[in-house]
Design brief:
Elements: E1 18-20, E2 46-47, E3 57-62, E4 68-74, E5 80-86, E6 94-99, E7 104-107, E8 114-119, E9 125-130, E10 144-145, E11 148-149, E12 151-152, E13 158-163, E14 170-171, E15 179-184, E16 191-195, E17 202-206, E18 214-215, E19 223-228, E20 234-240, H1 245-256, E21 259-260, E22 265-271, E23 278-279, E24 287-292, E25 298-303, H2 305-314, E26 324-329, E27 336-337, E28 345-350, E29 356-361, E30 372-378
Antiparallel strand pairs: 1-7, 2-3, 3-30, 4-5, 5-6, 6-7, 8-9, 9-13, 10-11, 12-21, 13-14, 15-16, 16-17, 17-18, 19-20, 20-22, 22-23, 24-25, 25-26, 26-27, 28-29, 29-30
Length: 380
């Protein structure tokens, strides 16, 4: 699940459709040979200028150039990304795989509305959420109820596992209501996902064949968007923390309408069995898309905390749309701003070797609302 303007889907296209990303792509890698372990060959997209105030990002490369592209997650061998994408002619997001060496972009989902895809161990199979088994047409989207900005948690979503080219698709979940946001433990291959099956939005784990399903969180309000640490021992995710009893009551009412309000979510962590639940951020803003740094002691995430401060100081509520990337220690100390774009930056994920960061951004957009993927070397 992601901020509302990214929610989408599409009519079924031929899964074998291959799109070359950017005809102007350079075939020369943008990697710095002076940094050890940077052997990744990237020909997708093209180099772009680094922005001032972003010293942790070097040799930035734009990978996509149109539409809404986000939630790009690495294959375990670091050679491909799986992502959700919606171009202007598509009614809703679909799942694509991007080959970083060739720039080929292949659609692997088959209609409805899709979200939150991930490679399984071995990279031969993928998991994602889809509504296609209910209808090839996507369910409708509501972005606002009264004065509240909301996300949709479509009841039609279920989890599917398929081959990496989209073939041999199998349904994993069959519970009533929302099942989505699955990611994979890099050590054991266990899935963590978000479900409303017990009446609230909680985290669950299960094996890649759908067996051994266990509930992980047990608190009022949304818990979701979880990722395992690299050692497989912990989970980092986002949780709703309503500020008043009235907001908590309203959140329950929204859930009954298959909606959730993202404006007051904080980054949280727990052990993989649900013990040790701990809140990391406490800024009262929209914080999401957390991911552990390679040391498993720090967390990178996206937040509109700076944008909200500007909105409060100037009265320009459009500033609240500005999301930046931040890094914070697991104990909540040492917060550092990573990106300096005046628009949206989100969905940061480190490569398996820890040397690269892929993220989504509105920077260098040719049209308002366009969101593209970017790759950068990480300088720690």
């Amino acid at each position: 699940m992601r901020p509302g303007r990214f929610h989408g889907g599409m009519r079924a296209l031929a899964p074998s459709l291959l799109l070359l990303v950017a005809a102007c792509s350079s075939t020369a890698p943008t990697l710095d040979p002076t940094i050890p372990g940077t052997e990744l060959v990237v020909s997708a997209g093209k180099p772009v200028a680094n922005l001032d105030g972003e010293p942790h990002l070097r040799n930035v490369r734009q990978l996509t150039f149109d539409g809404e592209n986000a939630e790009a997650y690495w294959a375990n061998d670091g050679r491909r990304l799986i992502l959700q994408r919606r171009s202007t002619e598509m009614p809703a997001d679909q799942i694509f795989v991007l080959d970083l060496a060739s720039g080929a972009l292949q659609q692997i989902s088959t209609g409805g509305r899709t979200t939150c895809s991930y490679f399984l161990q071995g990279d031969r199979k993928v998991v994602y959420a889809s509504t296609h088994h209910h209808s090839t047409e996507p369910p409708p989207v509501a972005k606002r109820t009264g004065r509240s900005y909301v996300w949709n948690i479509h009841r039609e979503y279920d989890l599917f596992v398929a081959n990496a080219d989209g073939s041999d698709k199998k349904q994993l979940t069959n519970e009533a209501g929302y099942d989505a946001e699955a990611t994979v433990c890099p050590v054991t291959g266990t899935l963590v996902f978000t479900s409303v099956r017990d009446g609230d939005l909680e985290l669950y784990t299960m094996e890649a064949d759908g067996s051994n399903c266990r509930r992980i969180t047990n608190r009022p309000g949304y818990d979701g968007g979880a990722f395992f640490s690299h050692d497989g021992r912990k989970l980092v995710f986002r949780s709703a923390f309503p500020r008043t009893p009235e907001e908590a009551k309203e959140d329950v009412e929204f859930l009954g309408q298959a909606l959730v309000r993202p404006s007051h979510m904080e980054i949280t962590v727990c052990n993989r069995d649900g013990t040790g639940f701990k809140q990391i951020t406490n800024n009262g803003c929209a914080n999401f898309a957390p991911y552990y740094l390679p040391d498993d002691k720090r967390i990178i995430y996206s937040s509109n905390a700076v944008g909200m401060k500007v909105a409060q100081e100037t009265g320009d509520h459009r500033a609240a749309r500005n999301f930046d990337l931040f890094v914070v220690n697991e104990d909540g100390t040492g917060e550092e701003r990573i990106t300096n774009c005046p628009e949206f930056d989100g969905f940061p994920v480190f490569s398996p070797n820890g040397n690269y960061l892929v993220f989504a951004s509105n920077r260098y957009s040719s049209k308002e609302g366009e969101t593209n993927l970017f790759l950068a070397q990480w300088v720690d």
